[in-house]
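Fold these two proteins, one after the other.
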Amino acid sequence: MRTVRAYLRSRGRLPASLMDRYVSVFSLLMLIAVAGQPLSGMFAGLAVPADPARMGAGVALLALTLAGFLAAARAAGPVLLPGADASWLLLSPLNRRHLLGRTARVLLGVAVVAGALLGIGLLAVLGAPDQHVWRVLGALVVGVSAAVGGMALAVLGQASQSWRFWLTGAVAVLLVLAVVAVTGRLRTVLAIAASAPLPAVTAAAAGAALLSGLLVRQAWTSLDRIPTRALMAASTRAGHVAGAAVSLDPGALTWIAEDNHWRARKLGSRRWPSLPAPFALAWQDWRRLGRRPGRLAAMAATAALPAVLAQAGGSPAALGVAVLAGALAVAAMSTSGTRRDADNPALSRLAGVGLRPALAARAALPALLSGTWAALALAGVTLTATAPWAGAGHSLAAGGLLAGGSAWWLFGPLAAPALAAGALRMARRDPIDHSMPVLDTPGGAIPTGPLFWAATGPDLALLGTLPAAAALASAPADLTSFLVAQGVASVLVLAGYLWRARAGGGKAR
């Protein structure tokens, strides 16, 4: 062991020189000088009382953000090692805690940054009517404590099954808090918290910091008790993600997640229904979605997010982006069969179904999902705008978008064909072409390959949903012409995409 430690110490990082410290301090001072003015202006703009009508929706968004952070930390591991260390050092008799210490410090830094953003969001929700500096510090301490404590809870959940139960409970409590907050039942409590005296703010921040510190200490002592199998699995996932990031192929991440989900499951066999050839080929997407009821439940739950955004005071433009982007994301979740056909066209030709009939049959599921999701989202927005807890701060009520009555939900099914066309185009696009030119701008070099890759699919969906986007932005009193235009545009976009679809090179296709 002495020989191994001496070898690792000789091959490790050299001690920091005086020049290294100078560069670090200089970079820190430059960062403060550049970011100081925007940050001070942002904090000065928050020194106003918050709108009570928007507090509930703001707290709901913060709770959902923290729940998503905890879920992402649990899915990532969160403790992991590089591939070489996981293969050679993890199974050695080295001190496990010292070996994982660097990863723990990285996780702490990530949690601190996320917590600072969470604290800024909390300050924007509750406001700072007086004692501005102390309330800013209190909000930052609470946000950082929540994020750091949540990360420590995720580390403990990786080491113990009982702690994993507490992590799941924390996520469930945050989701319940979001639901209760958005209904307006916490308005009195939030008003009291917004105007709480300085001693109460100090006590809350101190309690949050103390609890977070206890969790961090417990997580640090549990590093040497994390099972090797869990560390190896987390390191393997991290290696796949790093490989996809280096090659700038985000599509590989979805394949990794899809394959990991189905690899550990035993599926029963059922007789294939008697359907026409194109629909029989597309039935695999329906079966795959039916075997994941959790994904369907998550899709239905996210349909309430545009309503929460509207209640929090989001602009009509932001609301339109949320509805259309969310519907396109839902449609893209049901195009695995199309992606496999595009990646292996020789195998798809063996089915004996033409490309255009197959795409038309596969467009049915994403159209149904996206149209239903958009209809639920728009219906939820119109319902919450007239709910008792919406108040005068609701963005739709203030913007006059309710003049069209309850017909807004019709944009969902009418925009579904265009959204399905965009999802199919996303599923059949090529990997990123890194040979494309680089644009030299004053802000730096911008590679056009990733830009074109990211725009392939959303461009077609945006073209087909322009009437709906224009209606959400202008809030007309009569929606008839916009609804008719949306139906015609959606059908034309889907028909044009199917007509121009071709196999072989150029999957954008």
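Now the second one:
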Amino acid sequence: MKDTVLIVEDDDEITELVSLYLYRHDFEVLTAHDWKAIDILQEGSVDLVLLDIMLPGPSGFELCQEIRKYTDIPILFMSAKSAESDKILGLSLGGDDYLTKPFSPSELVARVKAQLRRYKGLSTKQGQTGSLIRISDLEIDEGCFMVSAPHAKVTLSAKEFQILMLMAQNPDRVFRPEDLFHHIWNSPALGDARTVMVHISNLRKKIEPDPSIPKYIVTIRGSGYKFNGEGAV
């Protein structure tokens, strides 16, 4: 079965060009110019979203947040906004990759394929019996893609869960921000420490009893982060 890509872009020329390249690589393509993308996502099977930021009405950033309320399929931003702050914001809101216009259609197709490979690999693990990690009051179930903290079950984005699993499976190992980025995004183009910092901050807000005094994800000043393995079962 072919993978389906939803292009959310208000520039018809870009939509046509990207669609053509995706068709040539055996993808099914759906298109939208604005928030009607939500209707398309709810009506049918979409495997990945290509999302512009500058859309009529609410922005692509806002649309990304809405999509993340009910699906964790890959979202790849493609935008003329090239500021580092925009890239970091897009990734922190739930985006999986960020490509700046103008871009090579071949590179875009390559990134689409890479994101789908990672997502399918993660989805396959969710259907299998995975490891169960218990550390103090925190429980991480790789097989069910679930995290339980003392107060409630925690909903994490795919990237947040991957970071947490990587660190929890290697307790007390210090990870530099660039190490985490390499392992999770596998893309040196956006290897900025602040991207990792945003995700670590979001993780702490969700799993730490007191995010201002981290119990699980500890900062090692001048080096990076480590997962506190004390109390592991």
